[in-house]
Amino acid sequence: MPVKVANQMQWLNYHHLHYFYTIAKEGSIAKAAEKLKIGQPSLSTQLRQLEESLGKDLFERRKQRLHLTEAGKLAYEYADQVFHLGAEMVEALHDRLQNNRVHVQIGALDSVPKHILLEIILQAHHQGNCSVSVVEGGGSELLRELSAHQIDLLLANYPPNVDTKSIYARPIAKLDVVVCASAKYKHLKKGFPQSLEGQPFVFPTVHSKLRRDLDHYFKVNGIRVDRIAETQDTSLQKLLGQEGVGLIPISLMAADELIKEKKLVVLGTLKGVSEEIWLAAADRKINNPIAAKLMKGFSL
């Protein structure tokens, strides 16, 4: 598909650009040819035609391997933006035209309370005719998907740690943290929090902000607890708590339903300890209208 570049009066063949992009990603003409399902001689010829049209060598061969030249690195950066934007356009058109319904894809860490997921789904439907997909997973995995525009929004219980201005985030909730347990531990309400000394706990994992805050709280208050299990999955934390395996420090919102059903009891509130929930999005040329409204106005 030849495209005329107005300012230079030159033609850029986007098929050739895609072949170059694939060669650069795969690291060799042989691997790229296999992926593109075309012959190596044909691929080499079309790469050479692109280099001739640009007047620059895009690769150099060192030790039997292809390496991008400085011109090649610059071309790759532009090609990466071009093809990401193309994929974004196709996705946006598909989302908006399919049954006149916008599709919103939300990623959520396992540690985010399900009540918050419920609230954002309800708010999405309130904003307009849409369908919502929820993907749960780890922070680094979901952040990559957000950067690649595979999801529209990300819910996390800590601010995304990124070195790029293309990702932005804001806090949407600050939740009190309580210690919950099965009824057999209800005697620990008396003398809380010193009554927690030596008790078995199910903690969030070490990389979470809440875990660091908990460690600090117990250290400052001189309370030693027995960490018998660690998990970021709040559903698993609550199951372990119900079974009496250990005490669980958890946001009051996350445990509210089980407290009402008397499957968990609140032993006390950890003063000064809270859990923040963050909503993140990535810069896009074509914004998902529902996701944009949620990013701007959703809060608890």
Describe the structure.
The protein has helices at residues 14-26, 29-36, 40-54, 70-97, 114-127, 139-147, 209-220, 234-242, 252-260, 289-297, and strands at 2-5, 10-13, 59-62, 65-68, 102-109, 130-137, 153-156, 167-181, 200-203, 226-230, 248-251, 265-282. With 300 residues, it is α/β, with parallel strands linked by helices. It has a 6-stranded mixed sheet, with helices on both faces. Helix 1 (14-26) packs across helix 3 (40-54) and helix 1 (14-26) packs across helix 4 (70-97). 29% of the residues are buried.
What are the main properties of this structure?
300 residues; alpha/beta; Arc Repressor Mutant, subunit A; 6-stranded mixed β-sheet; elongated; disordered N terminus; LysR_subst-bd; DNA-binding; transcription regulation; WH_DNA-bd_sf
Percentage of residues in strands: 25-35%
Give the SSE string: EEHHHEEHEHEHEEEHEHEHEH
The CATH topology annotation of the largest domain reads as D-Maltodextrin-Binding Protein, domain 2
Unreliable spans: 3-9
Structural class, from secondary structure content?
alpha/beta
Number of domains: 3
Task: Please name the fourth-level CATH homologous superfamily of the largest domain.
Answer: Periplasmic binding protein-like II
Tell me the overall shape. elongated
* N-end to C-end Cα span: 49 Å
Bin the helical content.
Answer: 40-55%
Overall pLDDT score: 88
Largest sheet: 6 strands, mixed
Based on the structure, what is the oligomeric state of the protein chains? single chain
